[in-house]
Inverse folding.
């Protein structure tokens, strides 16, 4: 999380059992190099002590609107003036109601009302409180006022009930903070991404597949969403959660992925084909499990799968198409040949042995202007560099 190093954040905490997660959130943010200041409501101190948050943040924790340690007694103004973001986690139903109606009867609500920086809320409450018409009206009002939300999520709650209202996990909140600070270079764009492998059945229990983990495709989808785009992710079978704010369509085979792309591509401004789609499928998969014949081999008849990227690129008015090539040798020459064959505006290439399943990658972009090395680094950082390159390519571009 190198992009938030040096950011100055005020972490606000309201009352709720989810406050214990804020301790871990503070730890994550401080480790990322954030200058973290903490302000707590009186109710929050019933769940986590200010001493705990002071130890984790390394700074004084503020709880009192009338704290005399602020020279001019204007803590509700001074404590936020040098901040890049106010992040309230957990944000209770009561606190959100105050914000929606401009009430400021304690330090944290006054800080939020008097702020000049962005405000992000991570709601945490019982499912019935979240679903309440009053809460939903307040959420709409706050969104209209420019407040950003991280969550909530659905799941088991401390009260024993299950449903929406659970505070999202600290790591996801930290990622939402990181996303907030990314340049919105693709605002208003619709981006379609494919990711992961496909599985081509041999029989009901066996498949032909590959070693793709989906990590690069998911990083691309996350980076596109961070850049302000409306993102749809069509994913083969992977063990990854969908990036926050991204609509995921889950598929298994190449033909299922092709059908999903055909259904979603209309209206897309950018298509990024990161999925490692199997080139071939078994022509006639066995309806039942194939039994082992001792001492005998077995022949499978294969047929080609559709070339999804080539089909999209050949449409009458295609989106800006980006291909990915994981090569085992001669990366540059193979990448140039693939880009030329499929008539792609942009192709990203890497050495497969260094990328499959790894958290880092090394990518070079190929377009009509030549080669553009992005260097080596975490896949999310390379995906963000790709978004900047795409923003330059798509500026003023007309479909087709």
């Amino acid at each position: 999380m190198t992009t938030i190093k040096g950011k100055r954040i005020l972490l606000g905490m309201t009352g709720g059992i989810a406050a214990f997660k804020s301790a871990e959130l503070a730890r994550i943010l401080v480790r990322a190099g954030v200058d973290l200041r903490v302000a707590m409501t009186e109710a929050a101190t019933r769940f986590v002590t200010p001493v705990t948050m002071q130890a984790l943040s390394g700074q004084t924790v503020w709880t009192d609107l009338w704290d005399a340690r602020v020279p001019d007694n204007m803590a509700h103004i001074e404590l936020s003036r040098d901040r890049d973001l106010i992040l309230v986690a957990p944000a209770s139903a009561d606190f959100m109601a105050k914000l929606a109606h401009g009430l400021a009867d304690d330090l944290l609500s006054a800080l939020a009302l008097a702020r000049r920086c962005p405000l992000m809320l991570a709601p945490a409450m019982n499912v019935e409180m979240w679903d309440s018409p009053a809460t939903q009206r307040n959420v709409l009002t706050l969104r209209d006022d420019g407040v950003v939300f991280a969550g909530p999520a659905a799941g088991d709650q401390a009260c024993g009930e299950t449903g929406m209202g659970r505070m999202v996990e600290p790591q996801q909140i930290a990622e939402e903070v990181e996303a907030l600070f990314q340049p919105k270079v693709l605002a208003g764009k619709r981006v379609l991404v494919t990711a992961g492998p496909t599985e081509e059945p041999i029989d009901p229990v066996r498949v032909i597949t590959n070693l793709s983990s989906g990590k690069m495709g998911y990083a691309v989808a996350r980076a596109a969403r961070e850049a302000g785009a409306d993102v749809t992710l069509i994913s083969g079978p992977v063990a990854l959660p969908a990036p926050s704010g991204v609509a995921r369509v889950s598929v298994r085979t190449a033909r299922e992925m092709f059908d999903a792309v055909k259904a979603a591509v209309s209206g897309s401004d950018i298509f990024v084909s990161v999925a490692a789609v199997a080139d071939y499928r078994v022509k006639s998969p066995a309806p039942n499990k194939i039994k082992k014949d001792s001492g005998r081999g077995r022949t499978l008849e294969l047929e080609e799968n559709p070339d999804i990227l080539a089909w999209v690129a050949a449409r009458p008015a295609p989106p800006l198409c980006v291909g990915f090539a994981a090569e085992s040798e001669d990366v540059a020459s193979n990448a140039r040949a693939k880009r030329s064959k499929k008539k792609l505006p942009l192709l990203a290439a890497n050495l497969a042995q260094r990328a499959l399943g790894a958290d880092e990658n090394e990518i070079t972009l190929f377009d009509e202007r030549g080669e553009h090395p992005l260097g080596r680094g975490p896949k999310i950082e390379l995906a963000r560099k790709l978004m900047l390159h795409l923003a330059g390519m798509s500026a003023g571009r007309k479909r087709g």
User: Anything to note?
Assistant: The CA atoms of residues 283 and 301 lie 6 Å apart. Residues 379-394 form the longest helix (16 residues). The chain has two domains: 2-180, 190-394.
